[in-house]
Amino acid sequence: MVSFTQFCILYFYFIASVVSQVSEFISIDCGSTSNYTDPSTGLSWSSDMDIMKHGRQVKVENPNGNSMQFQTRRDFPSDNKKYCYNLSTKERRRYLVRATFQYGSPANVDAYPKFEIYLDATQWATVTIQDGSRKYVNEMIIRAPSDSIDVCICCATTGFPFISTLELRPLNLSMYATDYEGDFFLNVAARVNFGALTKDLVRYPDDPYDRFWESDLDRRQNFLVGVAPGTARISTSKNVDIRTREYPPVKVMQTAVVGTEGELSYRLNLERFPANARAYAYFAEIEDLAPNETRKFQLREPYIPDYSNAVVNIAENANGSYTLYEPSYMNVTLDFVLSFTFSKTNDSTEGPLLNAMEISKYQQIAAKTERQDVTALNAIRNMSAESVWANEGGDPCVPTNWEWVNCSPTPPPRITKIALSGRNLKGQIPSEINHMEELTELWLDFNSLTGPLPDMSNLINLEILHLENNKLSGSLPLYLGRLPNLQALYIQNNSFSGEIPAALLSKKISFNYEGNPGLHNEAQRKLRFKLILGASIGVLAVLLILFLGSLILLRNFRGKMSHQKCDENGNSTQPGTKQSTACSIARGGHLLDEGVAYCISLSDLEEATNNFTKKIGKGSFGSVYYGKMKDGKEVAVKTMADSSSHLNKQFVTEVALLSRIHHRNLVPLIGYCEEAHQRILVYEYMHNGTLRDHIHGFLL
Hints:
By secondary structure, the protein is an alpha+beta fold. It has four domains: 148 residues, Galactose-binding lectin (Jelly Rolls, Sandwich); 165 residues, Jelly Rolls; 150 residues, Alpha-Beta Horseshoe (Leucine-rich repeat, LRR (right-handed beta-alpha superhelix)); 141 residues, Phosphorylase Kinase, domain 1 (2-Layer Sandwich), CATH 3.30.200. Helix content is 20%, strand content 31%. The protein contains ten helices and 42 strands. Strands 1, 2, 3, 7, 10, 13, 14, 15, 19, 22 and 25 form an eleven-stranded mixed sheet that branches. Strands 26-27-29-31-33-35 form a six-stranded mixed sheet, with no helix packed on it. The termini are far apart. GO terms for molecular function: ATP binding; protein kinase activity. Keywords: ATP-binding, Glycoprotein, Leucine-rich repeat, Membrane, Nucleotide-binding, Repeat, Signal, Transmembrane, Transmembrane helix. It is a single-pass type I membrane protein.
């Protein structure tokens, strides 16, 4: 009773698990125009019209079979882009991902397509269509690396890349666990149902995980050939307990092949081999053996150390008949052409038996673009979510770049350039861009970007930054001047304000900041102030020179006027030629030009002194005579006794000196006469006598 209760609990748990699995199935009919339920499986299928905006729907010509999924396909352009389907997953959960391809049999075809499919950044397979009526199936078993995966079609070498169906099947937690699943996917190379009753493959609902189990009756080139003589097919209707790790379907385990002559052998080609692989053999004793009958055998070919020497005794290993035994070869190296042989042991009465097998290649998981770069790109894409360019799928760098980015060649790829000039970007530049350390060029010009610049101080490799013709505002961050590799910065025609960082101006970069009225160059302003100050000082200096020059000219003019007056006075008493000559001689020494004494003619002095008759004194210079001018002014007239060159110089010096001196204790010089070898000085007459008279007394 207890065992029955446990069985019921396990049974209902299994049923609930299966129902849950089916509800999470994703089945996409690529190229279909409507959603539907497949009557043969009961599974719901969705059209890809709402999730794939690229490519075109094509009706398949002469499809093989009546399956609804293969009446249409989706063709993509044969270009350098990738076209990707995004499937939601739960991170770290295992899934089976399946893509199928049936091209059809058109009347005229030059060359069948050949192209690549990728799962995220990992090359999944090269799809080579050789038979248009055949359904090509590719399956990958993965542990989801994130909350979604991308299946991408690209890189056609002939024809147009296409796809018929895309499916995602969640697996039981225990299924297909390996020690290497963090670094490798399992690329399914073969999954065979031996002893199958028909050529039809086994799938859902017989397999609740909807794996494709190919019939060993499906004869095709290089598939399960080289069958050993005496190979027989057996089956049972009894239930087989399959509750182990991989849960092969009961229907598959109810059939088998047996080597009645002691051997089972097959040969088949494994696509994309040689490679390291995970191999599964599924055994269940489905014959009722007599007590004296045994079934023991070994793997004779290929020889695999630690495996080939092991003896398989199904009933013993599985703890009973009609119970699954599934030894697996965790990591074996297999060739492109796989030949395998099971041989019975000498003490076995029955030949070897095989129900099913699976072989999967370890597919190295290729590095995707650095996650922080992808996060930043997604933030940028959200700024123009409706644009075609913003809806490119798959990895930004692998297998081909998005058209608006450049990537580094070494794994993991990093974004080195973003080119989004004039792409209708709106809003603020996302802060996530600061984590793109390998970015060398950023082109965001001619958009509708607003707000201040975010922190981009981590972009130490940035060389070119285009932000012109946007609506950006705020101040220019200081970090712009500290980016070590910045060579060009264009921010013109925005609304930036404040002071331009001095470091930006001192660096040898191409820098354009025109069209930002609120932005000012403090260093340039200081330079402009210095230029204005220098120019002002220069103007003042010129004005000062002009002023001083004017004063000199004015003084010279006054001197000339004085000499002119002297000339006029001389001309009033003497013939003009002579007087002019006499006065010009004195002025030739340049000593009289600055004075105010004027020239008096000799005739005027003779008249004033009565021909020099009244002598009032004598000195080293000569005699002094009393005189009275025509206007009644009394004068003292000093004559030079000696007209030698030396005394002539002394006369000129005295005239020049006395003309400049004005003091209340000195007798002022009124004029002079230089005529007919005469050298005469005319002073104002002082009635109180000389200084000598006051010291020594008056002479009688």
